[in-house]
Specification:
The chain is mostly beta strands and about 210 residues long. It folds into 2 domains: about 90 residues, no CATH class; about 100 residues, no CATH class. Helices cover about 5% and strands about 45% of the residues. The protein contains 1 helix and 13 strands; from the N terminus they run E-H-E-E-E-E-E-E-E-E-E-E-E-E. It has a 4-stranded antiparallel beta sheet with strand order 6-9-13-10, with no helix packed on it. The protein starts with 9 loop residues before the first strand and ends in an 11-residue tail after the last strand.
């Protein structure tokens, strides 16, 4: 799974389990089917294959806490109805998937905007008069260059780092702003950590540059 920025942000792993339930008769088979439905009616549980001792996990395991949004059961089906199905056995098919994060240091989404104000030219004001048109006056021959740097980044499993100020020497520190928004909870897991930032700059010389690219 790739982000809009082209980074591999997660791997979607899907397990397709095909099996056969066996029972002595139809009533017992019905109970076995109900138990299967109940077991796979809950998302967010660990899933794994065990060794013959029934205790030791093999390499094949899906840990819900390691998945974005936890494990999810996407299908529980009984695809076969021919022959002696539902006599003493019943064929079933199950699908479980998980999104496992990769390269979580890279933000899934990133955007930044620069806005500029002023060109160093004179500052003019208009004075109202008792009669007639307002009068235009120059109150300052030269003014400052001003800029604002605003950005937003989204991390899948943790808050991403914010971009540094482009012109640190010209920053007005008291106007710096950082916002961390609550992540989204999906099946008990947290994802989509949003960080936003704003820097304000003012300088007697032009502020040349472009927005941060990551």
């Amino acid at each position: 799974m790739f982000s809009r920025r082209g980074f591999r942000q997660a791997v979607r792993e899907t397990w397709r389990i095909v099996g056969v339930l066996h029972a002595a008769d139809q009533p017992f088979l019905t109970s076995a089917i109900a138990a299967l439905r109940s077991a796979y009616n809950v998302n967010g549980l660990d899933l794994g294959l065990y060794l013959d001792d029934g205790v030791t996990l093999t390499d094949h395991v899906l840990t819900s806490s390691a998945a974005l949004g936890g494990t999810r059961v996407t299908a529980l089906e009984f695809p076969t109805g021919s022959g002696a199905e539902y006599s003493t056995f019943r064929s079933y098919s199950i699908s479980v998937e998980a999104r496992l994060p990769r390269h979580i240091a890279e933000p899934a989404r990133f955007s930044e905007t620069l806005s500029f104000e002023g060109n160093g030219g004179p500052r003019m004001v208009f004075l109202d008069t008792l009669a007639g048109l307002p009068q235009q006056q120059i109150v300052r021959q030269q003014t400052t260059y001003r800029a604002r740097q605003e950005g937003r980044a989204v991390g899948l499993a943790t808050y991403p780092g914010v971009a540094p100020p482009i012109w640190p020497a010209a920053e007005l520190p008291d106007q710096r702003r950082l916002i961390l928004r609550s992540p989204r909870r999906v099946a008990g897991n947290l994802t989509e950590f949003v960080a936003e930032w704003t820097y304000v700059f003012e300088s007697i010389s032009p502020l040349a540059g472009g927005p941060t690219v990551v």
